[in-house]
Amino acid sequence: VLAGVMFICNSAKCLPARAKSILNYMMNIKKIRGFTVIELMIVVAVIGILLAVGLPGLQDTISRIGTNTQAKTLVSSLNFARSESIKRGTLVSICSSSNGTDCATDSWANGWIVFVDNNSDADGSAGSVDVGDEILRVYQGLGGNALSFTADLQQYDPQGFGTNAVARTFLLCPADGNAANAQSVEISVTGRGRRIHEGLACP
């Protein structure tokens, strides 16, 4: 030890500990090198193959999750309308809507509304929501997915029963038309909705 500095000796010469550490670091830098063009091309090719194999599956998963979520929202809106009809003791309706303020025939993919039909004159066409009616909730469009219904309007009476004499069906199809990811909601004569996701066909 000399003047408070520790020396370390190797086969070449003695250097202060800090100086040797710096020297080793500089020697290691010389060993570091970048990728060659061939190596980069191989990496890009591998990434391309992985994307080609995995991307379709990813898109299919996203599509399935999308229709599944939208079908749940549709059932939720039916349950909400039914609950409101009982709570308010009046007729509550659901119709497709492109503007959130009135019904529009066969426009379910653009959204739908739940409203109180105080004068019981709604039929699902434009003008169904008139003076005295109250819009309870607005549901947004499906972002490119298709939604059809076997009627223009779904209604619930003050007891919470559907006014439909026969079962009705919503069919929800993804934008790519893949029936494997389609969803259906069947409304029984009592007004209850249940989801179906097998054996469906998209137009």
Please describe what this structure looks like.
Strands 5-4-3-7 form a four-stranded antiparallel β-sheet, covered by helices on one side. The longest helix is centred in the first third of the chain and has 52 residues, at 37-88. The protein contains two helices and ten strands, in the order E-E-H-H-E-E-E-E-E-E-E-E. 33% of the residues lie in helices and 23% in strands. With 203 residues, the chain is of the alpha+beta class. The model is unreliable at 1-8 (pLDDT under 50).
Tell me the Rg in angstroms. Answer: 33 Å
In one word, what is the shape?
Answer: elongated
Give the end-to-end Cα distance, rounded to a whole number of Å. Answer: 89 Å
- What level of helicity do the residues show? 25-40%
Query: Ranges with pLDDT <50 over ≥5 residues?
Result: 1-8
Count of strand segments: 10
Cross-sheet strand order for the largest sheet:
5-4-3-7
**How much of the polypeptide forms β-strand, as a percent range?**
15-25%
Order of helices and strands: EEHHEEEEEEEE
Query: How many strands, what sense, and barrel or not for the largest sheet?
Result: 4 strands, antiparallel
Mean pLDDT: 85
Structural class: alpha+beta
